[in-house]
Write a structure and sequence with these properties.
By secondary structure, this protein is mainly α. The protein has four helices and no strands.
Length: about 100
C-alpha cells in the first residue's frame, strides 16, 4: 500500500541529503522509522517541550544532587578523609 507524506520543501531537501549521506533512500528511512514505531508502540525518540539547554541544565542539576547525596552518605558512614589527608593524597598523586 502506498502512502503520501507532505513536508516543506526545505525539510524534504535536507532530509533527502542526510539520508543520502547515510546511504539510504528517504523511503527506506521512513520505513525504518515506521517499523520502530510499531515495534516500540511509541515514537522512538523523546518528544519534549523542554529545550536542549534546559535539558542540559536539568542533567547538570541531577548530577550535582547525586554528588551531594553520595557525599552525605559517605559522611553518614564515616567514609571521609580530613582536609590534610586529602592534601597528602593529592601530593602523592602529583609527586609534589
Amino acid at each position: 500500500m502506498a502512502m503520501t507524506i507532505s513536508m516543506e520543501d526545505d525539510l524534504k531537501r535536507d532530509f533527502t541529503e542526510v539520508c543520502r549521506e547515510i546511504g539510504l533512500p528517504p523511503s527506506t528511512a521512513i520505513g525504518i522509522f515506521a517499523r520502530a514505531v510499531v515495534r516500540e508502540r511509541a515514537i522512538p525518540f523523546p518528544l519534549s517541550a523542554v529545550s536542549s539547554a534546559e535539558r542540559a541544565a536539568q542533567t547538570y542539576e541531577l548530577s550535582v544532587a547525586d554528588g551531594i547525596r553520595r557525599g552525605l552518605a559517605e559522611v553518614a558512614t564515616g567514609d571521609v578523609v580530613s582536609r590534610d589527608e586529602a592534601r597528602a593524597m593529592r601530593a602523592a598523586r602529583t609527586g609534589a
